[in-house]
């Protein structure tokens, strides 16, 4: 499917440059081999509600739309079209991709009729894959190839994916954690849990509500997580203030939170992430696990930036854990590298 179409040799020459897209739950990135990362925006689109009939009008997209999440006036609706790495709202996803491609165009070689390579979670179903294909097609892509997120992330992290030696990459995104074992250019094992950074934010909201009776917004919770979040409990104390609404009287209230509070708050979802890594080590072929024991594990995705996550994983599984350079952009850069290197049609692609 991803091979050059023999009927369109001219198209193939015109559009030989590669466009990679990481349509993530939290962020969408577009990469071209000529321009590098030409777009990096939150996966949010904001629609005008009126008039009720007729085509939907977009009020904002990306960073601007994200600022409106949870604070939209009545005539606007902010939507996150992706959930757990797959499309939850098809029409919103299509509008969002189209807008992003338009935004990226002036900065790149990208034309809307380009061939796209899009990252998908390894665990996505056929229906979910078809939806991603169709949304990219409807947004104007001339041809759409899919690449598994683990393989893309491993390539972007600079792992020796084509070697016989096995590598393990753990991509912790907003909505999913993908554990992949890669060897000989393909994904030998992949496992995913529908848990990611969004679940850490939700866990912080519910912890603060239960303990202090204060309801934080999700973006406030995310801010706290990024500033003082910790995956281990025994850390030197760090504190910060966060303001939310008292559940008693509905008035604004500020609470002081510590890194130890956050470690306790996120323990549940964090255990699920750790469980997925342990499962990967149990289920991957023994020879490759020996390689992984030797080389360690690489973390990618925004969740890899959670404070002390490497240390916690090392404590739990006894292996070295490294955070990739620029973990937030690994998947899209890897997809771009794979497309440019002509890995199309190889294992991991479809
Ligand atoms: N410094 C940080 N500390 C902790 N978490 C962080 C940090 N920076 C970003 N994150 C989290 O990373 C997540 C976004 O990561 P990423 O962009 O890789 O996800 P995504 O690719 O959009 O999602 P998915 O792969 O699940 O579809 C968010 O939940 C965000 O809160
Ligand atoms: Mg991702």
From TrEMBL:
Amino-acid positions noted as binding ATP in the UniProt annotation, renumbered to this chain = 25-27, 174-176, 222-225, 302-305
Residue intervals passing through the bilayer: none
Q: Where in the cell is it found?
A: Cytoplasm
Report the principal subcellular site: cytoplasm
One example GO MF annotation? ATP binding
Q: Which GO terms describe its cellular component?
A: cytoplasm
Keyword annotations of the record: ATP-binding, Cell shape, Cytoplasm, Nucleotide-binding
Q: What Pfam families would the database entry show?
A: MreB_Mbl
SUPFAM superfamilies to which the protein is assigned, alphabetical: Actin-like ATPase domain
Q: Biological process GO annotation list?
A: cell morphogenesis; regulation of cell shape
Please report which protein family the annotation says this sequence is part of.
Answer: Belongs to the FtsA/MreB family.
Quaternary structure annotation from Swiss-Prot or TrEMBL: Forms polymers.
Q: Which PANTHER family match?
A: CELL SHAPE-DETERMINING PROTEIN MREB (PTHR42749:SF1)
Biological role? Forms membrane-associated dynamic filaments that are essential for cell shape determination. Acts by regulating cell wall synthesis and cell elongation, and thus cell shape. A feedback loop between cell geometry and MreB localization may maintain elongated cell shape by targeting cell wall growth to regions of negative cell wall curvature.
Provide the protein name: Cell shape-determining protein MreB
Specify the species.
Paraburkholderia susongensis
The organism's taxonomic lineage, starting at the top: Bacteria, Pseudomonadati, Pseudomonadota, Betaproteobacteria, Burkholderiales
